[in-house]
Specification:
alpha+beta, about 400 residues, 7-stranded mixed sheet, binds adenosine-5'-triphosphate, 21 helices
């Protein structure tokens, strides 16, 4: 449909980046990025109309996002960018000119494997455009930048290179490796804003095997470049590998609620640091005051609670519940990764599987029928009844009513 519309409007349309890379790799990717040689925003508006969706436009960057509902009833997003017109003055219909603008667009990208495009419009529908040898790099399993100033232009690409290397089990090419080392020697990472570094770290922690990327960052000295307190030690590595296992275990068993893995990894990465050092790290990563307070208090909570978790008696699960229920999921999972005690692991697992989702079969309305006057007593009675249920002292609704009435 996008191609047809391109033909009608006489603009060349391409699908670019991750989607094309993943197509060649045989990996699923539903994120479609389009590049239009012409007015990308006007194109996006027309395409959104055809798809029955809406458009969010970014006039300054000449980009737009189309949000629409697909045939399966799910909301999907389509990114549309404009290949910069300033690189060519001639009419957009001349083939050589078309190629040069898409080439400029692709040349600004990070790695050869991300600089592929497929033409959708005109008579060249489906034509693969590979200016930089990406197909060969995919065959050779290589991550390569497009030019030697790539990391100077944008040092976050160091972290991106490592992330893609781990994800696809590729290797960063020899020349690109040298350029990363140079960039780190030139301390280019220190010039990056905290929020960009945090964003890239978050992306790494959302992958399946973050530890491998962390180990690579350590090898390059990239962790140290972000902050020396993040450097790995054998103990920290052990903790982080455990974190990876626990996150994977949780994801396999539960889809909801989903944790923010980066919080758990950051707890691990700063586990050996003093509070002042952690403060520096959070400042470097440009934490907002709220993020800062939440993280520091979570760090304290897990330290205190972890010690008491082994002392919970099996017939007093309400105690376990009360210890864990107000701790963010990330803290609970971190404690699970940190502990060496099988009992604590079992307790946390029981909390996640059963206790945290246990609810009563009676409500305030039932208490009113039992003759309780509405007020704070409601909360107290219901809470105590829930504890009794968690401790398996009451099971059925009738037993809960009897317990509440006592
Ligand atoms: P993922 O599967 O992680 O979404 P992706 O390649 O789609 O991978 P995005 O971060 O969504 O990654 O980026 C989309 C495209 O934008 C990339 O394929 C790449 O071409 C380009 N890109 C993203 N970040 C940069 C960057 N820092 N420098 C240059 N190009 C970038």
């Amino acid at each position: 449909m996008a191609g047809e519309l391109g033909n009608k409007l006489n603009v060349a349309v391409y699908v670019v980046g991750g989607f094309v890379r993943d197509l060649l790799l045989g990996r699923k990717n539903l994120d479609l990025d389009l590049v239009v040689e012409g007015d990308g925003i006007a194109f996006a508006k027309k395409l959104a109309h055809r798809l029955g969706g809406r458009v969010r436009q970014h006039t300054k960057f000449k980009t737009a996002i189309i949000i629409y509902t697909n045939a399966a009833g799910e909301e999907e997003r389509l990114d549309v960018a404009t290949a910069r017109l300033e690189y060519y003055e001639q009419p957009a219909s001349l083939p050589t000119v078309e190629l040069s603008s898409i080439k400029m667009d692709l040349y600004r990208r990070d790695f050869t494997i991300n600089a592929l495009a497929i033409q959708l419009s005109h008579d060249k529908f489906g034509k693969l455009i590979d200016f930089f040898g990406a197909q060969k790099d995919i065959r050779d399993k290589l991550i390569r930048v497009l030019h030697s100033l790539s990391f100077v232009e944008d040092p976050t690409r160091i972290l991106r290179a490592i992330r893609f290397e781990t994800r696809f089990e590729f290797t960063i090419g020899p020349q690109t490796t040298k350029l990363i080392k140079n960039a780190l020697q030139l301390k280019l990472v220190t010039k990056l804003s905290g929020s960009r570094v945090l964003h890239e770290l978050q992306a790494i922690f959302n992958e399946v095997s973050p530890y491998q990327s962390l180990a690579r960052m350590q090898e390059f000295g990239a962790l140290e470049a972000i902050h020396p307190a993040l450097t790995l030690s054998p103990t920290k590595s052990k903790i982080l590998k455990e974190v990876e296992k626990v996150v994977e275990w949780y994801r396999m068993l539960y889809t909801q609620p989903s944790p923010e893995p980066w919080v758990i990894y950051l707890l691990g990465l700063t586990s050996a640091s003093k509070a002042e050092e952690v403060e520096e790290v959070l400042e470097r990563l440009h934490f907002t005051p709220k993020q800062y307070n939440d993280f520091m208090s979570l760090r304290e909570t897990v330290k205190t609670v972890a010690n008491t978790l082994g002392k919970v008696r099996p017939d007093a699960y309400s105690h376990l519940y009360n210890l864990l229920v107000s701790i963010p999921l990330e803290g609970v999972l971190y404690m699970m990764a940190r502990t060496k005690s099988e009992t604590i692991k079992k307790n946390i697992s029981h909390f996640l599987a059963y206790l945290r989702t246990t609810t009563l079969d009676i409500t305030g309305a039932d208490l009113q029928l039992l003759g309780f006057a509405p007020g704070p007593i409601f909360g107290e009675v219901l809470r105590k009844t829930l504890w009794a249920k968690l401790d398996e002292k009451v099971k059925t609704r009738q037993e809960q009513l009897d317990f509440a009435y006592r």
